[in-house]
């Protein structure tokens, strides 16, 4: 069982609206993000996460997003193992997202 907290898409929407500094990372592949991403999300495909973790500040809050929540959970667990203490997974991924999309 993972120790990564899950956050609902509705809670993620509130964080975007409140501009609270949370960094959203979409780990889907290029062709998936072409169908739209959550506003403010950064696109870092899952396979590239290991190449980018050293560039990300460890003291920020991160929410990881994918299509269904499985790949983003793997990315969140990886980041947690690398010393990121405030990492969450968006529950159900973009399949459960009903907010605005950016392209």
TrEMBL record:
Which InterPro entries does this chain map to? GlpE_sulfurtransferase (IPR050229), Rhodanese-like_dom (IPR001763), Rhodanese-like_dom_sf (IPR036873)
**What residues form the membrane-spanning segments?**
none
Residues covered by the Rhodanese domain: 18-103
Q: Which Gene3D superfamilies match?
A: Rhodanese-like domain (3.40.250.10)
Q: Which SUPFAM superfamilies match?
A: Rhodanese/Cell cycle control phosphatase
Top-level taxon in the UniProt lineage: Bacteria
Q: What is this protein called?
A: Rhodanese-like domain-containing protein
Species whose genome carries this gene? Halobacillus locisalis
């Amino acid at each position: 069982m993972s120790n990564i907290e899950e956050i609902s898409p509705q809670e993620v929407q509130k964080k975007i609206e409140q501009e609270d500094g949370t960094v959203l990372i979409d780990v889907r592949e290029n062709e998936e993000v072409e169908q739209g991403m959550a506003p403010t999300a950064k696109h870092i495909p899952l396979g590239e996460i290991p190449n980018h973790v050293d560039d990300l500040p460890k003291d920020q809050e991160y929410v990881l997003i994918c299509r269904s929540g499985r790949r983003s959970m793997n990315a969140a667990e990886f980041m947690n193992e690398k010393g990121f203490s405030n990492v969450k997974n968006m529950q159900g991924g973009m399949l459960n997202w009903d907010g605005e999309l950016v392209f």
